[in-house]
C-alpha cells in the first residue's frame, strides 16, 4: 500500500506529540480495546492530542461497539471502523462511521464490485446490531456470575478468577496446579470451542476455553501453564462449570 508505519506509545501523551513532531504522519490508527495488560490510555485523550496536532484519526472499534458509551468517532476520531461479523452480522461485512466528508470520499472510491452492500446483506447487518447488545448483556451477566462462583470455591482446583476486557470480555481462570494444557485438551472433548471462529460471531454458541493471549503470555510467561481464558458465548454458567469440572477430573 506504500504506507510507512510509525509507532507511538499511546500510554504517554508526550511521546505521541514527540513522534508527530519527528515524523509528521498523514493519519493515525488507534485501537479502542486494550492489547496489553499495562495499557492504560484514554481513547478520548489520545484522540484529542492527535487532533490538536492536526492528524486525522481512524479508530479500530472492534469489540467495543455496543459495549461502551462512545466509540471512536463519538470521541473525536475522523472515522470509526468495525467488523459487522463480530456483531452477529454476515461474513465479510464491516462498517465505517464518522465525518461526512471522509465517508463521501470512501463512497466515491468504493462504488462497484460489491464494495458497498445493500438489500438482504445490509438488513442482516441491521438485525445483528439490534441483537448484539442484548446478547452481550446476557453474556456479561453469565461472566459475572461465573466470577463470583469460581472465587467462592465451587471448583476447588481454581485459585482465582478475574474478568479481563482483553478485547472480548473474558474470564481469566488460574489454577493451583499447572493443568491449563490438560484442561484445554479435555474441554474441547466435552463441547467447548478450542478456538474462536469470528470472536463473538453468530457461529460462536458453545463456551470458548482458550489459551491466554500472546501479550498476556509475554507479560507473565509462567502463567500459561496455570491459567486459561473462558468466554461463555451463548452458554450459561452451569454448562461452563460442568465442562470445567469434567476436564479437571479427566
Oligomerization category of the chains in this entry: single chain
Beta strand count: 8
**Number of domains in the coordinates?**
2
N-to-C series of helices and strands: HEHEEEHHEEHEHEH
Order of strands in the sheet with the most strands?
1-2-3-4
Known CATH architecture of the largest domain: Alpha-Beta Complex
Number of helices: 7
Could you describe the 3D structure shown?
The protein is of the alpha/beta class and 250 residues long. The protein is 37% helix and 17% strand. It contains 7 helices and 8 strands; from the N terminus they run αβαβββααββαβαβα. The strands form 2 sheets. It has a 4-stranded mixed sheet with strand order 1-2-3-4. It has a 4-stranded antiparallel sheet with strand order 5-6-8-7, with helices on one face. Strand 1, helix 2 and strand 2 form a beta-alpha-beta unit. Helix 1 packs parallel to helix 2 and helix 5 crosses helix 7.
Notable characteristics:
250 residues, alpha/beta, Aspartate Aminotransferase, domain 1, 2 domains, four-stranded mixed sheet, four-stranded antiparallel sheet, 7 helices, 8 strands, globular
Amino acid at each position: 500500500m506504500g504506507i510507512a508505519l510509525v509507532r507511538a506509545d499511546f500510554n504517554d501523551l508526550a511521546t505521541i506529540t514527540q513522534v508527530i513532531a519527528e515524523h509528521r504522519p498523514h493519519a493515525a490508527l488507534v485501537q479502542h480495546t486494550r492489547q496489553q495488560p499495562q495499557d492504560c490510555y484514554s481513547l478520548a485523550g489520545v484522540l484529542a492530542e492527535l487532533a490538536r496536532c492536526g492528524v486525522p484519526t481512524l479508530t479500530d472499534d472492534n469489540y467495543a461497539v455496543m459495549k461502551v458509551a462512545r466509540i471512536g468517532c463519538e470521541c473525536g476520531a475522523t472515522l470509526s471502523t468495525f467488523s459487522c461479523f463480530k456483531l452477529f452480522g454476515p461474513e465479510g461485512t464491516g462498517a465505517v462511521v464518522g465525518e461526512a466528508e471522509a465517508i463521501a470520499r470512501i463512497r466515491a472510491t468504493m462504488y462497484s464490485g460489491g464494495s458497498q452492500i445493500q438489500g438482504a446483506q445490509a438488513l442482516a447487518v441491521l438485525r445483528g446490531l439490534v441483537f448484539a447488545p442484548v446478547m452481550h448483556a446476557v453474556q456479561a451477566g453469565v461472566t459475572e456470575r461465573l466470577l463470583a462462583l469460581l472465587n467462592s470455591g465451587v471448583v476447588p482446583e481454581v485459585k482465582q478468577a478475574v474478568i479481563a476486557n482483553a478485547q472480548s470480555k473474558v474470564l481469566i481462570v488460574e489454577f493451583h496446579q499447572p493443568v491449563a494444557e490438560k484442561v484445554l485438551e479435555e474441554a474441547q472433548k466435552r463441547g467447548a470451542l478450542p478456538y474462536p471462529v469470528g470472536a463473538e460471531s453468530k457461529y460462536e454458541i458453545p463456551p470458548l476455553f482458550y489459551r491466554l493471549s500472546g501479550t498476556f503470555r509475554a507479560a507473565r510467561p509462567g502463567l500459561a501453564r496455570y491459567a486459561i481464558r473462558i468466554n461463555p458465548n451463548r452458554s450459561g454458567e452451569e454448562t461452563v462449570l460442568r465442562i470445567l469440572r469434567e476436564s479437571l477430573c479427566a
